[in-house]
Amino acid sequence: NPTLARMMGYGSVEELRRRNLEEEGFAPGFPRADFKQRIESEGQVIGLESAWTRRDGRVLYVRENARVVRDDRGNIQWYEGTVEDITERKRVEETLRESEAGLAAAQRLAHIGSWQWDIAADTARWSEETFRIFGLTRGPLRQHRTDFLSRIVPEDRQRVDQALAEALSGARDYDLNYRIRLLDGREKVIQAQAQVLRGGDGCPVLMHGTVQDIT
Predict the structure, then answer these.
(1) Fewest CB atoms less than 10 Å from the CB: which of 86, 98, 148, 151?
(2) How many Å apart are CA 165 and CA 151, to the nearest integer?
(3) How far apart, in whole angstroms, are the C-alpha atoms of residue 193 and residue 70?
(4) In what order do the strands lie in the sheet with 76-85?
């Protein structure tokens, strides 16, 4: 349709029809065979991402939904579907990846890690540097409060738990030093700071902050 023609950089559907997309329309690394194999074996394609080459040579990233139309004997007559331009989304994702890579490098240099705790679900997300500081391999963080406190030396554990409780209640900010014990028995001194985010009812929803190895 005219919208697809404009997406591909053509002034009309007729101009687009004169181009052989099967042979020259797809960017390197996105062979049309992927589409054909899936749609002929499954009868449909949902959410397939690929890249096309526009008339001006720029790459157009798209997401396709399509299905097979067959005749009475089951022979494929044509494909029909929709194409969504996701080029801007791809650009944002790449920018985000670069930003995250830069942040990870900065955290490694400063020995500062970041973390986020979903209070209701009791799950967390740690940056790569936070895992490194705690001497752990990246993995899921469930039952986070209990698991986190178990890594603190017993003498500091109650004080840290009290600091968490006071931060969640709004009594005071979360800003303290504590000691952790690594799996190999070594100890580190950590400086931690965090903020609590609250919902419309004032209840704590999320806690996020930083940890720094100040050993």
Answers:
(1) 98
(2) 18
(3) 63
(4) 44-53, 59-70, 76-85
65's CB contacts (< 8 A; 6+ apart) are: 44, 45, 46, 47, 48, 81, 82
Tokens of 182: 């690594």
- Identify the burial level of 184 via C-beta atoms within 10 angstroms of its C-beta, where 0-12 means exposed, 13-18 middle and 19 or more buried: exposed
Q: What pLDDT digit, counting tens, does each position of 69-93 carry?
A: 999 998 889 889 998 998 888 887 7
Element holding 178 (H helix, E strand)? strand 174-181
Q: Report the alpha-carbon distance of residue 163 to residue 175 in Å, rounded.
A: 8
DSSP-assigned letters across all residues of 34-73: HHHHHHHHHSEEEEEEEEEE-TTS-EEEEEEEEEEEE-TT
Contact 69, 78 (CB under 8 A): yes
Measured at the CA of 203, the angle between CA 197 and CA 206, to 5 degrees, comes to 30
Q: What is the pLDDT of residues 25-73, one digit of tens each?
A: 677 666 666 777 888 888 888 888 888 888 898 888 888 899 999 999 9
With 0.85 as the threshold, say if the pTM is over it.
no
The HSE-up count of residue 41 (CA atoms within 13 Å, CB side) is 6
How many residues comprise the chain? Answer: 215
Using an 8 Å Cβ cutoff, are 161 and 152 in contact? no
Unique residue bearing structure tokens 């997300």: 125
